[in-house]
Hints:
The chain is of the alpha+beta class. It is 32% helix and 15% strand.
Amino acid sequence: MIIPMNDDWNKPLDDDIFDLSTHLLHGLIHCNGFAHLLCINGHEGGSKHLCGRELMDLWDRICLSLRTRKITVEDASKKRSMELRLLHGVAYGHPWFGRWGYKFCHGSFGVKEHIYNRALEILSSLELEKIIQDFSDMDQYEELKKIVRYYRYLSETQLVTIKDLLRFMLTVKACFPAKRNSLLPTAKPADVMEKARPATRESLKIKPPMKEKSSKYRKFSTVVSHMDSRWPAKRLEFAADVIVSALKEKKEKDFKNGGMARQDVRDAARLHIGDTGLLDYVLKSLNNVIVGNQVVCRSVNPTTRILEYTVHDLDDDDKVSEPEKEILPPPPQAAAPVSGIDVYSDVLYLYEHVLLGYPESGLVELATQAVLDSKHFVKECSVRDDTEKLLTLFCQILPSFTDKEIDFKRDLPPGEIVVMPLNATVGELKQEAENALRDTYCMTEQFVVTEIKGLEESDDMDELAGTVQSGTEVGVRGSGIDLDTPLRYQGGSDTWMVRCECGATDDDGERMVACDICEVWQHTRCCGMEDADEVPRLFICSTCYVSLVPPKTEPAALRFDCSTAFLEWRH
C-alpha cells in the first residue's frame, strides 16, 4: 500500500516506485498476516497536510481492519535531525512508534533486549544536578543551567532527571512562548540550583508573567489547534467540558471556599474519563481560556500554596482579575530576548550535548550507542476473537524424521493461521494447514500434511472440539518440503555465515564485509571502517590474521581489528 507525496497523485507510476522512501506512507501486508511498515513521512518528510502521527493512526487502523498478526518497522524517524528512538526512548521509555504498541524486536551490532532496556535506564536516570556539575568546566555550562532553570520555573512538579525534563519539554512545546530569557527572574545561580523549583519563586511569590496579565481570553478550541497532541481535538475538548462541569458543580455547592484544587479536579473528572494522561495534558492547558461560555483560570492559593482552578461566566465587560498583584514585587529585569528560540531548540541542545556529547563518560556513550543501534521494532496483535464461534489455530511446520538429519542453520517458517468452524474435523485441519503452507512458502509448494502433533491417534473424521483450543499452536508434519530451493529461507541462500565480535550471528541490516579466507561476514564498523570508507579489495579478519602471522610478530600490517570495540563494550 502506497500513499504518494501530495504532488505525485496524478503522475504515472515509475519503475522505481517501490524503492522510493519519500512516500507519505508505504506499507506491505502479506496474505498470512505479517506486515512491514517501510516508510512514513509527515511534515518533516515533506507532507503538506498530514503529520506523522495522523499517518500512523491510519496505518494502525488499516492493520487492525485486515487483522494483521505481526507488524515490523525499522525506526528511522527524525525530528530536526534528532533520532526519535533515542529522544523518546529517554523521555518515555519507548520509541516514537511505541505509542502504537511497537516493542523491541532485535538490535544491530549484537544489541539484545536486556542491553537495550538497561541503556534506556542509564540514560533516563541521569540527574540534572549531576549533569550540570559534570559540565561545570565545559562551554555548555551556562546554557544548560538556563535551560534547566527555565523549565523548572514553568513546571508544576519537580524535574529531577533528564527523563523528567525532556518529557515536560515535549509536553509543553506548543503551549509556552519561546523567549526563555524574558521569563526568567533575576537570581543568583546558586539560589536557583539549590532546589528543583527556583528559590525566588517560593520566597518572593513570583508568578510566571503569563499569569500576571492578559488582555483577553483565548478559546480552548484555538489552543487545541496549536497543540501537538496524540489525542484528537474532539477528545481534548470533551475532556475540557468534563473538567468545567466539575468546577461548576463545585462552585454551586461551595461557592465561598474559592477554587478547586488540581487533584480534586482530576479526581472528579476521572469519574467520566479514565485516561489520566489526557486529563493531565488538558489541565496544563487550562488557564485564562474559554470553554463554552465559561472562563477557566488557575492560580496558587496564597494561604495553602496549592494550585487551584476557578470558573466563572463569560461577560463582555469582564477583565482578567489580578488578585495577587499586591503581593508581587516589581517585574524582574529581563534580558534581551533571543528571537527564533523555541522548545525544540532547547531539546536539540540537550540532545546534542547531553545525550550525544556527555563529557568523559564511557557508560553514557555506550548506552546512547546501544539505543541508536536498536532500530527494529515489532507489534504483535491478537488474532483470537472470543466473540466469533470459530477456531483460530497456528499451524507450525515441524521437520520430519528424515529432515532432522539435516543441519538447519536458521529456523523453519513461522506458523500459519488457520480459521475453522468449531465442528471441524482432524482431516479438514490437515487440508487447511496444507493449503495455507502451500500458498505462502516456496519450499512447501508440494507439501503434504500426514500427521498433526498430539493427534496422531485420531481419525481424520474425528472432530477437533475438545481436543484443541482456539488460539493455540499445533505442529504439522509431512512430506514434500523442497530443501534444495534457493528460496529455502527468507534471506535467500543459507551458505553464508555471520560471526562478528560484537556478538551478531545473523544479518541485521548493517554494512558488512566478508573475510577472503574464511568467508565469514563481520560488520565494517566493528572492524574499524567508517561508513564512508571503501571496502578493501583484500580483507582478512583478525582470527585468520592471527593464524597466518606468528604470535610474536607485531601485527602492524593488520589494518582492522575488531577486538578493541568488543573489549570496550564488555567493560
